[in-house]
Amino acid sequence: MKVRMVGWIVAPAAVMVAMGIWGPSGRVAGQSADIPQSRAWLLGPIPEGTGNVPSHSGCPGEPKLLRPCAQEKANQFDPPRTPDGKPNFQGMWARTNGTGTDSRSAFILEEHEGNRAEQVPAGKSLIVDPPDGLIPYQPWAKAKREEIMKTYIDQVSNCLPPGVPRHFLAPGIYQIVQSPGYVIFVLEHAGHTRIVPTDGRAHIGGKARLWQGDSVGHWEGNTLVVDTTNVNGQAFLSILPRDFTSANLHVVERYTLFDTDSIFFEATLEDPTVFTRPWTIAWGRTRMPGKNLELFEEACHEGNRSDTFSVPNLMFLGLDHSPKP
Amino acid sequence: MKKRLGGLLIVFSVPLLTLGFVAGQNSTARSAAYVPPRASDGHPDVSGFWQALNTAPSFDIEDHAARVGVPAGYGVVEGGALPYQESALEKKRANFNKRLTDDTVPKCFLPGVPRITYMPFPFQIIQTFPSKRGDPEFGLDRDLGIVISYEYLDAVRYIHTNGRPHPGHGDRWMGDSRAHWEGDTLVVDVTEFNEEPWFDASGNFHSDALHVIERYTRTGPDTLKYEATIEDPKVFTRPWKMTIPLYRRQEPQLRLLEYYCHAYREEDRLRSVK
Fold first, then answer.
1. Least C-beta-crowded within 10 Å: which of A99, A138, A172, B247?
2. Which of A15, A189, A236, A297 to mutate to test the interface with B (most CBs of B within 10 A)?
3. Mean pLDDT for the stretch of residues B149-171
4. Which residue of B has its CA nearest to A300?
């Protein structure tokens, strides 16, 4: 099998189809087959609470409803632990999101109608704060987002990392492993790996700007808290539209097991250059069923024959899209 | 003029000689006596940030003189010249002449194994907590065992220690890695390569029949001996071996940064267009 994926969009779905965990029946890893996939709401409107979470978790999938439900369960849940006494997140984790079974739905953060041309199903907002579910852009930034959409392609399409917090929203095979002092998030796509030290160290110097930012973690009770700064401001938060930040972005992520097979995730994003206030997104991941799952090499840039690099007006790299602080 | 060149050569080679000498002493003297600390899986702790100090093999794995941009250096091939088959030797010479266009590393492609080990970038070996019966993930995922994350290209290798065989799909830039322990040595069996990456920037090459057996052995608190046995019946007349001492990076609270080669190249190109 040639694992030379050209496109980000096709790759995870193809892998999942190949592995028999996603298919025309609408079954996605972690979802029991009793949740119907109704094509009727593909384009909207979307029923309240719609989402793809494991039925055994007993929580709705829509982030604003998932959040209180998962938090309440987490308060009463004593998670399995690794030998160092920390909650055990090890394993393969499928994404759950606010809309349902289609892997493309989480490409959009805000509530949205379906789009047949883009093959995107309708979806609920992943934003749990502010309550209106919209990204609190400053006016100039909201206008900028429209311009970006027409001008630049998504960095992930060029085999660059999704950045933070999008890494944990990425579709495809996703594994978390732990070792003393580290939590390691392994995304199969292009082998993009995040290694988070949990020793409470300080961030690196401000001049070092990174696609994935500098992430440092610590444990608050049973929750892994990851603080990220030093981003380069070039990684879009989503593909449709290209939600963006400046290099002043500060992200605080919180990962909590609320039962053996379910992670509740939320991330607060703060960027005074682009947003009017901090805002929070949330979703879940659920343990993938199946046995003996194993990551493959997915060489991305090596197999990229899409020639996007020859179309400079479609590239955002090296161009500034936010005012200097 | 002649004198100055001679001086340059000495500048380049003396430190390399010294390093080689010290490293050789360390590995032979200590490997017998040194008892490495244990990881949570009970095996020697090989985790941490490692890097090859001798980067000469990334230019040429054989002994070589200096040329523009390339310091002279000692190769890492044991027993002298590489045992190329006759036709392969011709291809190697052709590769050398076309090295600036045909090497895949300048295209920002994955450099393969073992080449990534002696690129001038650090890498982190992570020994994960082994899954045991009763753990929620037990039997669902295949115990990942060891992950090697390389700063270069954000490349990652999953070193499976679950006892399963190579899956047989082939065609991988970094091969498929299956490991076991022989005493205190981590032995990684790597196959299912494609034929794209070279061993170095001088055209030393392999086919898709490449089979690499890597051996990682702690020889001291801050040294890790790396040995790689190379088999490729389509290219070489016999197996051959390279040995490279790896050193622990000493900076406190080190973390891998990023080297997304193709992003920086594109950035440069766009700036020149603007």
1. A138
2. A297
3. 93
4. B109
A198 touches A219 (CB < 8 A): yes
Q: Is A92 on the interface with B (CB under 8 A)?
A: yes
For residue B124, report the phi and psi dihedrals to the nearest 5 degrees. Answer: -115, 125
A vs B: CB pairs below 8 A: 154
Q: Do B160 and A161 touch (CB under 8 A)?
A: no
What share of chain B has pLDDT > 70, as a percent? 86
Q: At residue A72, does pLDDT exceed 80?
A: yes
Q: What is the pLDDT of residues B14-37, one digit of tens each?
A: 344 444 444 444 444 444 679 999
**8 Å CB contact of A293 and B147:** no
| B274 pLDDT higher than 80 | no
**Partner residue opposite B124 with nearest CB, options A195, A199, A312:** A195
Query: Global pTM?
Result: 0.84
- Of the given ranges (A75-79, B1-5, B57-61), which has the lowest mean pLDDT? B1-5
Q: Which of residues 249-288 of A touch B (CB under 8 A)?
A: 260-261, 287-288
Checking if the pLDDT of A56 tops 70, the result is no
What pLDDT is attached to residue A50? 58
B171 to A2: CB separation less than 8 angstroms, yes or no:
yes
Task: Identify which of B169, B257, B269 has the shortest CB distance to residue A210.
Answer: B257
Whether the per-residue pLDDT at A156 is higher than 60: the answer is yes
Asked if the Cβ–Cβ distance from A193 to B262 is below 8 Å, we say: no
How many domains in chain B?
1
Nearest Cβ partner for B149 among A193, A214, A296:
A193
Domain ranges of chain A: 10-31+50-314
Cα nearest neighbour of B132 on chain A: A82
Mean of the per-residue pLDDT values for chain A? 77
* Out of B47, B147, B257, closest to residue A177 by CB: B147
List pLDDT tens digits, range B235-256: 999 999 999 999 999 998 899 9
Strand partners, B229: B213, B241
Structural domain including B29 reads 2-273
